[in-house]
Amino acid sequence: MTTTNSMRFSPDELLSGMLATVEGTDFTADNTRLRASFAKIAADFPLMAPFAQTDDAIQKAITVLEGRKALVLDGDHYTLTDEGRVHCVSSKRTLFNKDAREQLEGAAAIFSAA
What we know:
The protein is mainly alpha-helical.
């Protein structure tokens, strides 16, 4: 098992890295469903542990990405913008090593299936 020091990445960097791999562009805005998805992700991938440490980590990360125009709230779901996709892919490539990228990709698969 690979261990990754997730504390060196902010939750918004982790979310961005994960969203770079998600195939779709939309996901739920329901906080309960998001917390449940991220609880599973954090349990399976040590890199994503910050999302299990506080109830508001997910929302704070989303708020940062909204501020960067990477995500837009549209009714009951968030949409990853084209500019957001570019930002996320760039972040994933520059911030994360191979082991971390593999965890982000695994997390994205769980997130996409939720």
